[in-house]
Amino acid sequence: MNSVIIVAGGIGRRLGLGYNKIFAKLLDRPVLSYTIENFVASPGVDQIVVCAGNPQDGTAEDDCRRVQELLEREDLLDRITVVPGAGTRMQSVQCGLDALSLTDEDIILIQDASRPFTSQQLITELIQSAKEHGASICGVKPKDTIQKIDESGCCVQTFDRDTLRAVATPVAAQWRLLRQAREIAKREGYLDTPGFEDSALLQKAGTPVFFIDCGYTNVKITTQEDLFLAERLLSERL
């Protein structure tokens, strides 16, 4: 069985919204609507959970209600489970895991709710790679030169772009390996390390994570510039 956790927290500060960016409109539809649509249409996906809002900042109840209303409008209430998120991304993913019925060899995909252009082909490739290798992640080769800076702001090291990848979501992994990686991280105290996500936990636990190029259109909506680009991409597809 292949299950998807869509992480849908946040309040859209960098977009200047004052509410969760998953409800920002792209050609009159919420961002989340496109993200969900891609997974519902994927024949390899069996279960979908959306983790919405954060009880700690008071957004969970309203965000869950709005997600359920969206699903009702699109006749998807029977296909998707909605649960409250938590205070951190990693804790929100756990909320999604807790809502699923899983066996060791099941594949878990973890997706940013604000990525509305994840293709069905990419979803299929990630699932297959995780089945064969244990875990996989998508991303792209950086277009720009990447440099490390010191505390004073001075550039001190230039990296070879050919060895670097800017990673995105979905992340895919066998449940047995993801569970082990999360148990180790919790036991050793780095589960909620800033900047960590589940592919990092898998790597740290010794699981090879295979890379799949997703192309530059698997955009994450974070800023107004991202929203503008997303609208252009959608307009070109219509």
For the record, the CATH architecture stands as: Alpha-Beta Complex
Q: What's the tally of helices?
A: 7
Largest sheet: 7 strands, mixed
CATH superfamily: Spore Coat Polysaccharide Biosynthesis Protein SpsA, Chain A
Strand and helix order:
EEEHEHEHEHEEEEHHEH
- What is the CATH level 1 assignment? Alpha Beta
Mean pLDDT: 94
Number of domains: 1
Total strands: the figure is 11
The share of residues in helices is 25-40%
Terminal-residue CA separation: 33 Å
* Strand percent estimate: 15-25%
Overall shape: it is: globular
What integer value in Å does the Rg equal? 18 Å
Q: Would you mind describing this structure in some detail?
A:
With 238 residues, the chain is α/β, with parallel strands linked by helices. It has one domain (2-237): Spore Coat Polysaccharide Biosynthesis Protein SpsA, Chain A (Alpha-Beta Complex). It has 7 helices and 11 strands. It has helices spanning 31-40, 60-73, 89-98, 120-133, 175-188, 198-204, 224-237, and strands at residues 2-8, 25-26, 29-30, 47-52, 80-84, 107-112, 135-140, 147-149, 155-158, 166-174, 210-213. The strands form 3 sheets. A 7-stranded mixed beta sheet has the order 5-4-1-6-10-7-11, with helices on both faces. Strands 2-3 form a two-stranded antiparallel sheet. Strand 4 (47-52), helix 2 (60-73) and strand 5 form a beta-alpha-beta unit. Helix 5 packs across helix 6 (198-204). It starts with a strand and ends with a helix. The model has no long low-confidence stretch (mean pLDDT 94).
